[in-house]
Fold each of these.
Amino acid sequence: SDVKTYIGSAGQFTATAAQAISAGDAVAMDSTGKVGPIKQIQGLWNNTDGDRNYDFGAASEDEYVSEGFATAYDPDTDRHLIVWKNAAYDVWSVVVARNAGNADATFGTPVQIHNSTGTSDRAKGISCTYDTSADRFLVMYNVNDNSTAYNNTIKGRVATVTGGSTNSVAFGTVTTILDHGLIFGQMSPCTTYATSANRHVVVNRIYRLNSDSSVQDYEWSSLTVEVTGGGTNTPSAGTYAQVSSGNYGDAESESICWDETNDRFIAIHMDNNTDDWMHAVGSISGSTITWGAVAVFDNTNSSYSGAGSACIHDASTNRTAVFIS
């Protein structure tokens, strides 16, 4: 709009500030009529303008989102893939493109990953990572059979995102990563082993089941998954490995990151018997992970209820930051 529309004959007007403005700042107006420093108006996304609400327009997709979201970023197409499980135990995904220069985003058309037909195939425990070698996403999730636990499986699907004006995602064939097992928990921390081997690692409290649906074991464990790109677009299961026996842990507290400087994984975990925070370091060869001894690094927590963690490695300083709550 012509700024004279707002100034009027008095030569001044009143507006809401989008961000703090100092005397002498050059300012601009955003699409909502707020005024702020030019750099803020042009460069920030979803900051002072608040959250963005997006309605997918169909109950099958945006029915009450249960157990949160998982997301990863594709640097090749400059797109994010968001994955979630809804209250109907379906798994959905959508591609999101940040609109540079304004505080908004463009959403693609939602694509269903898993369609639950009843109590025998309910999805849980989602994760999403991006593989820079195969240029593909990997989405993993549990499929739970409420009546026969032995039928529980951990599934995986490889996704290819198209950018440009399309913002679409296509999924390969559903593949069983671990049969007769499940990841105990709402979210399944998963990291990408960023080499040409295309290995992904998920770590959590993993249940393995006997044919009579009794529990074989439920230890703090890991799974490796290899992603194949090209025309195949399939994941293949590698090795199950126990991180520690007896330290059963709280599944919601798990996190894992890759230390590219030392070529090692770091897994973070809370033991729900002692409420102690623990870590383990793992090395990978092919599809096999070998975990070192578990060690306590914090014993000041009073309860595992609501515990959570995150970790990230900084290659420039060769340090890993761990966040716990």
Amino acid sequence: RGFLSDVPAHRKFVLCTYSCSFMNGKPDGKRVKERFIKNDGSHVWKGKVHETCVSEFQTGGVKCDDIVWNHRTTEGRSVESYKRNMDIAEKEVSEQITKDGKPDPRSLFNLGMAYCGLAQRTGKQEDWERALSVFARFVEIGEWDEHLFSAWKFMGICYSQINRLDLALNAYFQCLRLKPQYSDAHAALARTYDGLGDDEKAEAWYRTALLATEENAYSDEVTTRKVSCLVGIGMIAIRKSKFEDAIKIFEQAKELSGDDAMVNNVLKEAYRIKEDLETSRGIIKQLDALADDKKEVAYDALDPKWKGYPEVCAWRHKHAFKKESSGKDL
């Protein structure tokens, strides 16, 4: 109340930080949103999807960084919310088509967002395809680059979910054409190349995402995005057997994320793999130090875990030992 009483009379609204999509107690989404509006008739409630009062003329406001609005929900309420938004947007688009012969681009975008949100909860292919068809219509008539960027981004997500990664790549490159400075387009390309098994391109795009300077209005919170990119680079390092590099990268992710279960798990796994590799190399070193007639006996006495370890298997093949369990070379 103290802050609001100091807002100048000609300022009609107050923008605050709006946090949502909480995971592990932390927001996965964060943006600036109108949270206080002067009750003087300058804004009108329109019953829109995103619960925002709309002004019919340009008004000025102020931003308050000290007030943070946390939007917490349950899975059940979240699904109900998307279905409610979907009903509102469907009705609005239908009324616009009846009246004007075509939908308003903003309403079409809201409908696509509602369909996409529901698909994220249900995971059904038909829900992803329905969202995709609406965003495809929107990019034909949309004019504002900010929404066009988001529409192409969500089209990429839809394509990924129905296993059309080739079309997802095209959608994300369209994002990049519109807003090359936005980090989430780079990160989306990285994840898609990762899914295609192209480690070189995936790592390159993860790194450009970390260097990108801006976020779009519908992007994930910046810390979450950086953490996911670092984890992606770390997993590629593990696949390349660069365990020291992977551990350093995961440690950076841990510094950013704090006590995040996913980051803790991949870091723990990286240490375990590194330790197992060092143990297996120590075993091989001991085996190589033995006389030739004692190597096979020593190998046969190993714990089955180490007999099956890739480096130890390769050492056995080099010495043409038979596999004890089958009598055949692997």
